[in-house]
Amino acid sequence: MTLLRLIPLCLLALAACSDPEKVARYPIEPPAATKTLPNRLGTAELREVSLPQYATAQEIPYQTPDGALRSNPDNLWADDPARSITLALARQISAVSGATVLSDPWPLSDPPRRRIEVRIEQILPGADGALHVAGVYFVSPAGLDAGNDVVRRFDFTVPIATTEPGAAPTPAAIVAAQGAAVSELARRIAQLN
């Protein structure tokens, strides 16, 4: 009989531990972009961006000085990270170049001229206060046309704003850095650079 009385107390204690108002969800929002580059892509289909495993989780990761990647279950991405980065990247490439870049599957009746594939090998909020982004992107003709393939590696960093030296970056600072990284990557792809 005492066991039956303990069950409701245990359930109440578990409910108190998981306060949904403590959970924060952050969208990836690159800064607003304006057309500053020529349209070198025309119409292009962007396949879903490939991310390293640690970057696909719902929790926002960051690196600590000991080299480990850590996260907090109260700080989550608002959407699936790969989907969110893909949509933001397509939007940014279109905005800076005037190209029509849409995510896969291609929704229009006329087929795209090109296909873009992005493989991000590293998108790491490092313990050094910078977001490290590295990988490769491919741009190829979408039809049967051979040639004119573009393969470019990228490797750059974006500073992460911190409140104090040595402190872990806030989720909002990591999100802002990722937005800036998406903008930088969009510019590189739009320039085929």
Automatic annotation (TrEMBL):
<feature type="signal peptide">
    <location>
        <begin position="1"/>
        <end position="15"/>
    </location>
</feature>
<keyword id="KW-0732">Signal</keyword>
<dbReference type="Pfam" id="PF03886">
    <property type="entry name" value="ABC_trans_aux"/>
</dbReference>
<dbReference type="InterPro" id="IPR005586">
    <property type="entry name" value="ABC_trans_aux"/>
</dbReference>
<protein>
    <recommendedName>
        <fullName>ABC-type transport auxiliary lipoprotein component domain-containing protein</fullName>
    </recommendedName>
</protein>
<feature type="domain" description="ABC-type transport auxiliary lipoprotein component">
    <location>
        <begin position="28"/>
        <end position="190"/>
    </location>
</feature>
